[in-house]
Every structure is written in C-alpha cells, then in structure tokens.
Amino acid sequence: MIRSLTIHVPEDYNIRAKTYVNLFERFYEELEKKGYKVWTKRISLPVLNEDVDSRCKIIKDLWDVFGRYLVAGLMIDLENKRSLDAGSVIRCMRELNTLYSSLLIPEKDHEDHLMFLESFYREDHPDIFTRFAGVIGSWVLTPYFPSSPSIVDEAGISIALRYVDLMKKSFETEEEFDEMIRWIKSLDNDLLEISERLGVKYVGIDLSLSPWMEESVAELVERLSGSEIHEPGSASSIHILNKMIQRIKYESNVRTTGFNEVMLPLEEDNILKKRASERKISLTTLLRLTPYCIAGLDMTVVSRRRFDIKKIVKDLVSTYEIKRRPLGFRVIPVNREAGDKISLGRFGESTVVEV
Q: Is residue 279 pLDDT above 60, yes or no?
C-alpha cells in the first residue's frame, strides 16, 4: 500500500494552489486506475520565510483547496526567522487540525532553537505535539510528516510505503525478497510513466520502513533479535533492517528521496505500545536507538515532571555528529505520571513512559 502520496509545491503555491491540487488529483486518479491503494494524500509547502501569522492566513485563505489534505505548512528555519513566537505556531495548528510543522535544528549555535522548544512545550497540547517534529542537521525532501519541507523549484511528487507485510515475508525465502523488489520496481515504473504523461516531476520513493499499529516494525526487530525491543540485540536487528532497505534501494534501482531508514514511532506501532504499557521501555531506551534509525525517539508520550528538551536535543545533536545523517524526533510531554494512560485521538490509548 502507498502510505502517503505527497505533492511538494514551490514558492508560487499561494497563486497556483488550484492548479497544483488539480494536477495532484489527476496523479492520484491515475495511480488508482493502475490498482494502487493510497492511504493518505498530503501537500508540502516551502520553508517559512514570512512570519507565522502571515503564512497561517495564506493557508486559511486556501483552506477550501487544501482542507481535505494533510498539510506540512509551517516548516521553520530560525536562520530565516530569528524572532519567532511559539505561541503563534500553536494557535495556527490549533485552528487547522490537519496542519503540520517542524523546526530545523542546526548542529551548532542552537540556543535560540532550544528557547523556542521550551516555549512550545510549556503547556499541554498533545494533539499538536503529534503534528510537530524537530529535525537535527538539515532538511530532507521526504513525504514523511511532520518533517516534510518543500525544498523544490517546481512541483514534484513523492511517496512513502506501508510494506511491513512484504518485509516480513521476505524473511522467509529469497524468492519473497525478490518479489518485494519486483513490486517496488513496478511501482516506480508506473510513477515515472504517470509523471511524464502529466508533466509533473516525480521526486522519488522514501523506502523508510514505518509501522501502522498491527503492521509492526518492532515485531520485525524482535523477531530478528529473539529478544524484546528494550533488550540487547535490538540495535543490531535495526541495523540489519536498514541494510535490507539499502539492498532494496540498490537492487531495484528505483528513484529514492527522503530518509530510507527504519522508523519506530511508539504510538503508531502496537508492539511498541504494548512494551510501553508493560513499563519495559523508556524515553532513554528509545534515545539509545537513535544512532540506528532516523526516528528512534518518535511519538513518545513522557511525563512533564522530568521532561528536559534541552538534554534531549543535545543528545540527538551528538548522535547526528557521529552519524552524519539528519534525525527527526517527536515528543509529547504531558502533566501525568509515568505509567498513566491518556487518549491520543486517532492513535488510541497511550502510555506515559519513564524518562
């Protein structure tokens, strides 16, 4: 299944929105004609170069066009906007409940970014926090939200996949692995053919392996290691999965974009949710996995009492300095104690984890 079909639009999106959306819908219809099922449709806007209130007004004015999609609309680079009010980001995201945002955090000189994050996380906004990410290092052109800036000069299409089931089958025989390669290569060919016919750029596929509830990446990790994900063996298993993703990339020779790594969003993976409920994983456990996957610390609900965003970011920046690849994170601090349950909307019941 196609997890997300995303159109990345350039700076003229505010005057050509309908043109881009019409083109996007035609692309979607052509994919469906070829038998592909698309789970979500998304629009990625350029990095913020105006104040938040102005960008928010533009998006609201275009909501009759954009409102049926998920929209990555507030991609924040403080190099462009040194003075930025976190409250204005929260207000805009509260008004537009399918709007996503992310903050680029550089390797050095990130004190302003830490101040922004401290202000952003000061009060409880769990739903908003699920739609906000920090990105360490550099922007990446990806269909994965929230970290999806449109860093393009012309409109382009990217996709992400839900293929945990195919990866699981590929463990069984080499023939199953080859069948997965053939399916991905066929999809790539179809995407290229549609893009050429419609005259829209095909950016590529992000081959990242990401879960959705019962389609559990953590289950694959545990199956490879023979241990639960908080126990020794998980890091090497994640490394094996990442090598499999790279093998897919090179053997299929498909056009790729984005992160192309294992993703472990806690509240989107039923095995991770189960381990959290059993009090077996903590924020620290997940931080230790970040050298091995793009988003080891992702969709993690944590007690505000011991939440320290500065320490978290400093650890992630150190990981980036070693890994030299961008990292993303999503944390959800709440005024509850570790072990408490909260409702997290479409993600269901969630457990507050230990720090």
A: yes
